[in-house]
Amino acid sequence: TFLAYRAYEELEQTINLVTVDPKLDFGSKEDEAHAGNYLNEIVLYQPNYLFNYSNVGHQHYLVEKDLLELMKKMFFDTERLGRLFEDVSRAEPIIRNADIVSMDISAVRHSDAPGTAFSGPNGLYGEQFCQIARYAGMSDKLTSMGFYNYNPEFDRREITAHLIAQALWCFIEGVSQRKGDYPIGSSEDYYKYIVDLPSGDHQMVFYKSNRTDRWWLDVPYPAGMKNKYHRHHLVPCTYEDYQKATNEELPDLWWRTYQKLT
């Protein structure tokens, strides 16, 4: 994943990274780079082109509380496993915002994917893993995806290899169904919704694609930042975020994005 991230250096533009992982792989800064701390290498790498990092499917008891607090302070996003069990589509807008998606096999429960040295009794079901791969394929913004931490020595009857193949098939199917939404589509392809904030001084702007019914939230640029962050002000969101805004609630997504833009 770190090497995939470095490949974007030649583009000289900030990017978004999403990992599907049961843990947040920061680890100890003193150790050499490995699968458990490679995010340190990405966050600290110079020149730094990381605009946003998000993790999907972390298990609360595998992540230190201080690390979750650090994620909040850095305005990064996390979606825990329990919320995905309620509705796996919660991962879709997060995945849609990614340039790189890194899918760790250990995010899947051992019974569905034994072929990794880091498997556990809990995790995503195989079909949820495949659904997330399909979301990645459907994203017009995504340009890189990889599957990591597969070890055939642990793979009884090649169950995990089959799962990866099926997830890759779902990804390709998603690519075949891309609709040319943001950042490809023009403004004529969207319905625009304007919500007045309670203060009366500002408005929140939402866009809904008339091709896919997917939603985006338009976060205003701070003065002088338009050229640097032009790829990140229109953020994938959900209809639920729009409903919150109509109920005079400021979506967390808007606030986190605005803080990163500044």
Give structural notes.
Helix 6 packs parallel to helix 7. It is built from 9 helices and 9 strands. Strands 3-2-1-4-5 form a 5-stranded parallel β-sheet. The mean pLDDT is 91. The chain has 262 residues and is an alpha/beta fold. 31% of the residues lie in helices and 19% in strands.
Find the structural class using helix and strand composition.
alpha/beta
**How large, in whole angstroms, is the Cα Rg?**
19 Å
Instruction: Output mean pLDDT.
Output: 91
How many strands?
9
Strand content: 15-25%
Distance between the termini: 27 Å
Going across the major beta sheet, what is the strand order?
A: 3-2-1-4-5
Number of helices: 9
Indicate the percent of residues in helices.
Answer: 25-40%
- Main beta sheet, described? 5 strands, parallel
